[in-house]
Each structure stands twice: as C-alpha cells, then as structure tokens.
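Summary for the funding panel

The consortium committed to producing paired sequence-structure records for every protein in the target list. Below we show the first two records in order, beginning with the earlier of the two.
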Amino acid sequence: MKYKNLKYTYNVIGFSLIIFLTLRESLSLLLVHTPLEKGTVPFTLISMAVYLLACFVPVVVMENMLGLHPLLFKKTKPADAAATAAFGYLIILGAGIINSIVLMLLANAGLQFEPNSMTLPQGFLNVLLYFVYICVLPPLVEEIFVRGLVLNALKGWGLPFAVFVSSVIFALMHSSLHNFLIYFACGIVLAKVYIAFDSIWPCVLLHFVNNTVSFVQLGFQQKANAQSALFFSIYIYIMAMLLGYAGFKYIQKHNINLAFSFTRIKDFRYKIKSLCQSYAGICAFALLLFMAAYNSYLSVI
C-alpha cells in the first residue's frame, strides 16, 4: 500500500466519498429534470448507469491512490457463504425490529417519519430492471467500495476501528439518519463476514438477500392486500429464524469465525486527531451527515 499514515488514508477515503456524492446527486438531479418518465425502461437504465459511474469512479481513485485492491476472487465454499448469509440476515432482521421500535417511540413523542416511498413500476421488464437496480447492483458495487476498499484500507490500524468507521460510512451513504441504526448494524455484520472470509462474495450474497426480501415485501405491500402483506412478513420472520438458526449451527460446527469483538479502539486520540487534520475526510463526513439529516428532515410528517 502506498499510504504513509492514517491522515493520508482519511484524505483518500474522504476524497473518494466526495466524488461519489457529487456524481450521485448531480447526475440524479439532471436525470430528474429530463423529459424521461420515472419508472420507464430508459429512466431506469440511465439511473443504473449513473449509480455505477458514481460508485466505480471512487473505486478507481482509491485503488490508484492507495495501491489497494479488494479481495474479490478468494475461493469460498457455497455452503459456508449460504450459512453465513442466513445467520447474518437474522441479525440484520433483529436490528430492523429494534430500529422500528425506536421509530415508534419517536412517533409517540411527536416525531413521525414517512415510510418508504419507493414504488414499483408497471410492466414485467420495468420491474425486472428495477430489481437489478435495487437488488443486484448495490450489493456488488457497495461491497467492493465499502468492505473491499474502505475497510481494507483501515484495518492496518485495528479491526474494531476499521469495522466501526466503514459501518458508519455505509450507514451515512444511505442518506437516512432516522434509519441509521439498521444500516449501521448491516455494516457491522457485512464487515465481520468480509473479515471472516477475506472475500466480498459472501457479503454480496448477504446484501443481495437483504435487498431482495425488502424488494419482495415492497411488492406485496403495493400489489397485494394488507392481509397478504402481513402473512408474507410473518412468513419471512419465521423462515429467517429457522434458516438463521440452521446457519448458526453450521457456523459453529465448521468453526467459521464470526465472533463480534467489542475490543476498545486503541490509540483513539491519535485517530480522532488524524481525522481532524484530514480536510477531505472532515468535508466528506460533514456532507454525508448533512445529507442524511436533510433527507430525514424532509421525511418528517
């Protein structure tokens, strides 16, 4: 790796995130003001191209500036990856329940947020392209960027530190401060999976499962009646518990190390000082936090 210190690494990560945010927001804004109708095939295809460009340009920047390449192709047993995905999804589902309880408490206190406003398009081809846009592309490009590069670049300063910072970045990248808890929990689980296997593919699988289940649930909520949507959600919870438990037993039997370490982050003052001296890192964090807070503010009912 080419970097000499933590400050330089912060700057590279921050610079890459600024590129990501600039491309994602500016190109998306331009797309919204085109004559193309949202939900149509051309609109979805261009949205996919914008998302890929916004993600892969920072990846190229980080690879070149840090001399670092994500571990993509390390061989992983399909059964190991499947068991890990099942158990990991159960943990993420639990975090989602906690996040929902927090939102309910906030609503009772008078601070209520709009639910997911995403709507599925009409027509088989449109839905298929939207599925690729929501469930296939994000797991691939986000795992390459966040786990394959950001976490990898930071783990030389300790795994707890690398897991924490990469998970915070992952959560803020989703621009939803009121859903920070669920995205942060996802980031921690995915980081641990990456560390256990030294490969992004189990992370991609888990990320894909999570997004796909949410996509199907959204479809039931919008296309089916309320009773069918409720039964489907109950079915998902039951299957997640059964498969998650089976995955947990498999992980125990085959000694896959997914233990969560809550070790204190060492040299904490040095790491904070390096961040404060990293102008690109500070700017990127401020932008991520502002956009997440602003989107949550717009979601307040």
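The next record, for a separate protein in the list, is shown here:
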Amino acid sequence: MRPQLDATLDGDGRTRPTRPVAGKPGDRPTTLPATMIDLTPDPIALQLGPLPIYWYGVAYAVGLALSYVVLVRQARRFGQDPELITNGVIVIAIAALIGGRLYHVIDQWQLYRDDLLRIVMPPYSGLGVYGGLLTGTLAFILLVRHHRVSPWVWADVVAPALFTMQAIGRWGNFFNQELYGPPTSLPWGIAIDCAHRVAAYPCETLPEATTGFQPLFLYESVSGVVGALFLIWLSRRRPYRLRPGDQILIFFIWYAVVRFALESLRTGNWVIGGIPTAQLMSVLFALGAFLVLLSRHRRPKADGSAGGEPDGDLEPDGGTEASMDAARPRPRD
C-alpha cells in the first residue's frame, strides 16, 4: 500500500494531494499537485516455465514487424523489389543489435564490469541507438553493394521504417523503468520505483508514491510516429524537389536534434569531457547529414542550373539519376 499523500489547501478552500519535487539531491523537497501516472509495470510479459518473456523484447519484436510492413510498402512505392527485404532485415537487425548492445555496455559499464556474462546473457534490456545506427548502416552498405542496387534510393525506403522502429521499441524502456528525466509536475509524469532510480533521485528525498518523472521514452516515441508519417507523406506527395537519399538525411537530422535535446534531461549518462556522448554523436550525425544534404542540392546539374546532381551521374546499380527519377514515387490525385 502506498503512503497517504500530504494535502495543501486550494484557493477555493478544497484540499488536493501534493508531492515533492527535487532541487539538488539532499534538499528539502517542495510540493506540487500529484498528477503523475502512478504505474510501475512488471518488465516480464509472460513466463513460459523457466523462460521469461520480457516486454522490452516484445516491444522491439512488434517494432521490427511493423517496420517490415513499412519497408515493403515503401519499396513498392519507390519501384524497388520487396523480395530483397526479408533477408536484409534479418542481417541489419542482427548488426544493429550487436552495435546497440555494445554502445549500451560502454555507456553503463558500471552495471557489467563485475559480471561480464550479463553482457551476452538475456535479458538484453539495454540498447544504444547510435551504436545500432552505426553497425546497421555498415551492414546496409554491404547489402546494397552485394545486390548492386542504389544505396540512396534504398536508404529512402528504410528511413520511415527507422522512425517506426523507434516509435514502438521505445515502449520497452517504459516497462524497464528507464530513459526518464528529472522530477516533474506534468500530468504525464511517470512513477519510477526505488530499485530503478539513478543516484541523483533517491527515494529518501523523492518518495516513490509522490514523485513523477519526465517520460523521455514517450517523447522519442511520439517523435518517431510524427517522423514516420512525415516521411511517408513526403514520399507520396513530394511537394519539393527531392534527391535520392534526402529522406534518410532528414531522418538523421531529425533524430539527432530530438536526441540532443532530450539528453540534456538525463542523469548518469556516458560523458566524454563532461559532455554526454549521445549529444556529441547527435552533433556529428546532424551536422554531417546537413552538410551532405546541402552539398547535394547545391551541386550544379548538367544543364548548368543549381539545385542537384548532374542528371547523368552513374549510381552503383548502373542506372543514372534520370532513370532513378523515373522510378521515384509521383504525387497522387
């Protein structure tokens, strides 16, 4: 049973429950209305004998399945062969899992240094997105070279699926009670039990029953939904002149900006020189993608006008920019 909340007096004479909000660790907490989502979920979805099935894995499995659906639809829309997707998704997913796990282990080394088997033994309840993006991108490059298809066109096919995966997969963090920010009085603040608190937010000064935290996983999830819908709309309507590869570059910029902002709300993350590593990676990804996007659109075309690559440039699949333009999706009435 949770302890009874304190009460404060409203201006109209009614009482309402209150909860403490942190300043610095050790400070005496102040009070704010208790409007948090008071739920600490069980991380195990199902127990099959000795084998637990974790919600974290379920979330990523569902995300991968929905991403596959998006990939198939986008491949058809871009005039590409959907048959290439099945094996490709498996290869890229495994590569992303390895990179994401490695990034997480480095990030949270204090959790694994005394028990190295935890790195490779289930449950795999920790993945770093940037690690997964790096190794997944490497696997993607090897695959498109093997199949001799255009990397830029296929990168655009993949872009909304990445947003979809992020939008669904982040809910695994909710069930693991991780990826949360500082205490908040917002009505969508979430409860975090004492066992899952970082050192900066002890239950002694921030009681479990009365303290809600910023749900950073939710913000990333919503961003993923909006980003996926935007790129799908962009591939259907094409209100601007797009070059092959623009959508994946938009994804990198979009995700990096959102992650940079949210990382400033996290505590206890991996830092280099006092700066969160994820923010450094965000700057590199966003700046790199922006410069590539800018360079490709400023490059003069064959007719001497600005705004794109020469129409006769050869692509890795042997086609030209002009032939790829014919395969791009056209606006629908």
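Regarding this second record: The chain is about 45% helix and 10% strand. The radius of gyration is 23 Å.
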